[in-house]
Amino acid sequence: MTTPVAPLPSLRVSSHFIPSLNLIPNTSLKNYPLLIYHECFPPSISAAIIEAHLRSIGVVEPQWRYTMYNTTHFHSTTHEVLCIASGRARLCFGGEDNPGKVETEVKIGDVIIIPAGVGHRLLQDLDGGFEMVGSYPKGNDWDLCYGREDEKANIEAIKDIAWFDRDPVYGDEGPALQIVYGGV
């Protein structure tokens, strides 16, 4: 079976640093950017093939297939890798009231790497049937935080979360590693 991902030299990647907003830390604590791999998988991809590919790389474990919640939330226990398996959607990263937010459209085949602490939400399912494969680094469990006062201890714990030592989609190479070594 051939690798179902775009060759690295032709992969287009968006990298975003998002300032904190109230108790949503975004990229301010660890300075790891939100990464979007555009058209990483072909438009003919299925959720099952995405899951098989991620398992073969061995960095993250696919845990669910679903849309994105329409309330801004973030994870304080893990980074998140979202692979778009069907449809198109408009998403908001950083909190809708954040002047430094990122609002973007994603579509089937895109991959989003969301660092712990980055707020995210669905703004609009553009075609109906928007679905992602949600994955997390092996051994990590995810939580839901909303930027409330009672979550301050959770937010502080983000500082202890290590970045990827292998790219979750490409393995020993890839954009997620370039941020550690001074790229992207």
From TrEMBL:
InterPro entries: Cupin_2, RmlC-like_jellyroll, RmlC_Cupin_sf, UCP019307_cupin, YjiB-like. CDD domains: cupin_YjlB-like (cd02219). Residues 71-122 form the Cupin type-2 domain. It holds the Pfam family Cupin_2. SUPFAM superfamilies: RmlC-like cupins (SSF51182). This is RmlC-like cupin domain-containing protein. It comes from Suillus plorans.
